Amino acid sequence: MNAPPIPAQRFIGRRVPRKEDGRLLTGRGSFVDDIILPGMLHAAFVRSPIARGTIRSIDTDVARAQPGVHAVLTQADLAPFGVTMLSFFLGPVEVAMTPLADGRVAYVGHPVALVIADDRYLAEDAASLVVVDYAEEAAVVTLDDARLGPRVHPDTDDNVAALMGEEDADAALEALLARAPHLVSQSIRHQRIAQSPMETRGVVASLQGESELLVHITCAGPQLVARWLTLALDRPGLSVRVIAKDVGGSFGLKNHPWMEEVSAILAAMLLRRPVKWIEDRIENLTAANQAREQEMTLRAAFDADGRLIASHADYALNNGAYPMGADANIAVHMFLWSAYNIPAYSFVSRGWYSNTPGLAAYRGPWAIETLARETLLDRAARQIGIDPVELRRRNLCTAADQPSVTPLGIPREDITPAQCLEKLLAVVDVPAFRAEQAAARARGRYLGLGLAAYIEPTGAAGSELAQLRIEPTGRVVAVMSVHSQGHGTQTTMAQCIAEQLGVPIEDVTIFDGDSSRGGFGPGAGGSRQGVIGGGAAIRAGRLLADKVKMVAAHLLNASPEAISLADGMVHVAGAPEMRRTLREIAEIAYGEPGRMPPGMETGLEAQYRYDPPPMTFTSAAHACIVEVDADTGFVTIQRWVSSEDCGVMINPAVVEGQIAGGLAQAIGSVLLEDAARDAQGNPTAATFKDYALPTIFDVPDFEYVHADTPSQAEGGFRGVGEGGCIIGPPTLVNAIADALAPFGEVPVDLPLTPDKLMTVIEGQPWPERPVSRFHPDHLAPEVDVPAPAAPSPPPVVPAAPVGIGGAWKLVLATPMGPQPMVAHFEVTGDRVTGRLEADQGSQEFAGTIAGNQVAWEMKVTKPMAITLKYALMFDGDSVTGKCKMGIFGTVKVRGERA
User: Fold this and answer.
1) Which of 93, 218, 370, 779 is the most exposed place for a label (fewest CB within 10 A)?
2) Tens digit of each residue's pLDDT (9 = 90 or more) over 537-588
3) Which of the four pLDDT bands, split at 50, 70 and 90, describes residue 617?
4) How far is CA 230 from CA 123, 215, 226, 241, 720, in A?
5) What would the mean pLDDT of 640-647 be, rounded to a whole number?
6) 390 membership: H or E segment, kind and range
7) Closest to 331 (Cα-Cα) out of 366, 358, 303
8) SS3 148
9) Is residue 406 scored above 50 in pLDDT?
């Protein structure tokens, strides 16, 4: 009789203490500023004190003469390197950009010169002695400025950095909105946010001989940074190794290097000495890339029963001067109504250049979609006269509605926002709260309940690699392409691996943070590491477990099916006396190749690169109860409940920590944080005294309800990293609006500071934003500086055609980066035919020619079915123009004769 196999150990789903916490909490982490190299020099930047202008001269003589100063570098010194600054999509940035300012400055804090000295103190002192003569110009600061003012970049047509959606109104949709029984409209404004990681940006760069550049950097993923630098530097024969051991948060700021990091790296290459630059907090708050300054007007139509009919959004995003990728934020519209059933939706979305620090990502970059939608739904409930819970129940996508596709083509197969809402309502007694609220109002206290629901795309960016080996000691080593900035991946990945191999989690060590180890991975971002990294860890663990079983079966004269792994031991079903330690099997696998199964490679190693499903959705519903003091406008959060469905949880403690961290940032964005600029573009929040982050007194103890619906990804995991920061703001805003409902509507104009809320309580007008200095009604400019010349008039179109026949090299500036193509044209009279060739294939087209202008349309099916409308203008051997890409907006086309 065969005995049952030893049961497998379960680590996935357990609240295992984080393996890395002991080291980090006792000050034994290894961050960039902990790196000290022999002969290391230190860097400090000379930064622009004005937001816009030209550089007349830079006098570095006095600074260079200071003791301990090794160099004072300007862009003229760095130009010979020929660096190509790249966007997040690894293509050239959309506007001319150099590591240090080249003749012009475009925001306060723009790096102009770099001082290299024996220590940071000497470098800072010398930087203060550099004299720069500027010719100041009127700054374009706000979104209104960008719409009305001069071009931020002289070589652009206007200040539109990116455009998506349909600028022309959709007549059919407008008719649906006009005829609807209920039309609800809301405009919201979101302030500028500084990511404020615990560890600011920093880099230590050094040449290792002639063939290797070693870069220690605080980043979201060392492999991505190595790839970025290799492409940007483009130096054959130079390999780039990037190390990021511990990282104190990123939140989108550290996805890849930017001006300062590149300048410091080039200084190290130029001086052939290690160079360190560590950003101080003032630099981080005033000159680092920022996020979230955006506006949206959202309209939604409902039928007589409160069911959605149609919606339209007009969205604007401040891209700053040099965004890490010109962005109109298409994700806002892709997911705005994805959790709800709505027949029709359209939008127009624009990103705008301004004289402010460039746009970077921030936890859930598309989060305004949930803020706009969920606050509008509460406003709609009040306007229609229906309970906000019931309104959501009538419109949320349920299991019965799936599979289905949203108006923008997003497939929905296993989302659970309606289920999350019901789980939430099982622990939040809404009728009881309403009774408490009414009694409190009778006593002059104002309580409010806010609800929100959402879904979030996770695990949708690239693949991840796990390389595993069981050492001859029996311990397990994993080299992962994931990378932690506080995510706990050294614990969660170890849990996935330990469960597959049947070893104690203490025996699994995770190595990451070094681009020379393991394979490429894009790093953290998009709530992806649990889904994709966890999937890779499980698959690689299974492969290695299968090999162990085959080796053990061969050595113990058993069948592989009889072998099981548990407690670091190899067990044979029905023969407990034959069990062996994993170490014994590993010693034979490495040291006695003759005892291995015939044809099997020696050692105990395996690797797997996991490519997940196209998109894995997480769903959630949250509730928040607040009290607003009617005498001061201060908000106190009394209770917060999260009902989250992130699939199978690897470690519930890590999941809840991620939710809590996101909610803390949400509270800060709603009540406190504001990286504001004055009319001249000067930052008004330069320290944490001015830029108010939430403290322990602002953040409540959160309650958690978990749905745990397995996803289609390996392990059943769903991402959770960004959720709290996405669903948190509307939950809190709705609670405040509910509390102050007796006084009127609360505009969604963040942050909701006490003085703003007091205007609602006291019945005063909401504070108006200052009128743009470029608006005709602006009568009192704050500073008398000349405005740049207006854009030049459009070129005159010649009447006679130009010779365009033959091949042309074109570049289409798509939202995902530049798309190179080759176009072949043949002209017959006023007709033109041809063929477009790109990496994705080729396609023929036919159009018209008038003078030097050519226009044609062509239908494509990938990545989705849209009609492309080209309009090009030829001038000698160059061509410029635009392409309308349906919902993806209008993009620029440039090229030259092949």
Assistant:
1) 779
2) 999 999 999 999 999 999 999 999 999 999 999 999 999 999 999 999 999 9
3) very high
4) 28, 12, 6, 10, 32
5) 97
6) helix 388-395
7) 366
8) helix
9) yes
Quick one: pLDDT at residue 777? 84
Strand extents, DSSP E, 392-542:
404-405, 411-412, 446-458, 464-470, 476-480, 508-511
Residue 580: what residue type?
A: R
**Residues 6 or more apart from 308 whose CB is under 8 A from it?**
300, 301, 302, 337, 340, 341, 342, 343, 395
Distance of CA 39 to the CA centre of its chain: 36
Cα(525)–Cα(744) distance, integer angstroms: 39
Q: What is the pLDDT of residue 525?
A: 86
Q: How far apart are the C-alpha atoms of 882 and 118, rounded to whole Å?
A: 51
Which of 297, 287, 320 lies closest to 146 in space, CA to CA? 320
Q: Which residue has the tokens 């889904």?
A: 531
- Count the residues in the chain: 898
Report the chain's C-alpha Rg in angstroms: 29
Q: Which residues contact 179 (CB under 8 A, 6 or more apart)?
A: none
Spatial CB neighbours of 574, under 8 Å, sequence gap ≥ 6:
1, 2, 3, 562
Contact of 56 with 135, CB cutoff 8 Å: yes
> What is the DSSP annotation of 208-233?
ETTTEEEEEE--S-HHHHHHHHHHHH
For residues 734 and 274, give the distance between their C-alpha atoms in angstroms, rounded to a whole number: 52
Report in angstroms the alpha-carbon separations of 308 from 302, 628, 786.
Answer: 4, 31, 50
The pLDDT of 464-490, averaged and rounded, is 96
pLDDT reading at 796 higher than 90: no
Nearest-angstrom CA–CA distance, 289 and 285: 9
State the number of CA atoms in the 13 A half-sphere of 310 facing the CB: 16
Residue 792 has pLDDT above 60, yes or no: no
What is the spatial distance between Cα 502 and Cα 692, in angstroms, rounded to a whole number?
Answer: 47
Where b means 16+ CB within 10 Å and e means fewer, 641-653 reads: bbbbbbbbbbbbe
**Residue listed under structure tokens 């027949």:** 343
Q: CA torsion, points 768, 773, 779, 782, in degrees to nearest 10?
A: 100
What's the count of helices (H) and strands (E) in the chain, helices before strands?
Answer: 20, 36
C-alpha–C-alpha distance, residues 669 and 586, integer Å: 53
Write down the mean pLDDT value for the chain: 94
Work out the average pLDDT over 737-757: 98
Sign (positive or negative) of CA dihedral 317, 753, 248, 23 = negative
Question: Tens of pLDDT along 120-173?
Answer: 999 999 999 999 999 999 999 999 999 999 999 999 999 999 999 888 889 999
Integer Cα distance of 445 and 628 in angstroms = 8
Are 560 and 573 in contact by the 8 Å Cβ rule? The answer is no
Distance CA 786, CA 638 (A): 52
Helix or strand run (H / E) with residue 873? strand 866-875
Nearest to 342 by CA among 372, 308, 388, 312: 308
CB 467 within 8 Å of CB 727: no
